[in-house]
Amino acid sequence: METKKTLISIIVPVYNTEKYIERCLDSIMKQDYPNFEVILVNDGSTDESGIIIQKYKEKYKNTSYIKQENKGVGAARNAGIKVAKGDYISFVDSDDLIMEDYCSHLLSIIGDADIAVAGREKYIDNVYDKSKTPSQVITVSGMEALKFQMLGKYNTRPAWGKLYKRNIVEDVSFVEDCIFEEVRYSAETFLKAEKVIFANKDLYSYRIRPNSIMTSNEQKRVKELAIALIYVYKILLEDGRYCECKREFEMWLAHTIIQNTQIYCEQVVDTKVFKKYVGELVKLYYKGGI
To answer: Which domain holds residue 138?
Structure first.
């Protein structure tokens, strides 16, 4: 049973989120679990984010501040991991929010698991959508969690919204200057984990911003997602475990191809017709016809 002496390191990469960061940090500081540190990594922000970070560093003794040139969110998280002192590590994006019992709840359920995954809700302009939370606590192997990631189930794909045992993240680094660094990171940490537990409670609120990196530059996103999938495929082959999740990986690949084909085609192809025939392909694929 974990005690209140267990230290949790919360790493927050920050880049030009002056409009949101105070709400994010306030939600972290309101945790009902007392023993946590906050590592704020300013990834070369050009707005007022740095001033806000400094204010919180001066106000809260459990807060540290790292400044670096703009290298991307992966590099910022890596910098945070290097100085983290916690028995457990968690990532929170600087435009998101966590519930008051985020730390305490995940710590209470993790037990002998290596990773605890929070339920999450997403919101756009204060409209909330609860869509990634199981109805009951689920405990699975690391491989089963990876299959969940491939199928898009629960909150498996992002790095945020999880509590990692320190040994799980120590030898796994984020790929720097890459949009889909989390795809690789989640896959590698799940492969390293023996057991993963999923909370049946919404503990993390994920903000979708219209101009964020994940909602812009579609061509780059398509290219880098393909690179990330190839990377996951290679590490599965190297680990000798591809056969354990071949079907799920193929479904992930097929879904990605279909999704990104639509991005390019919707400007020149009748969307209704496109969706009709893609739907037939998906049905055929799931029945094992492809």
So the answer is: 8-214
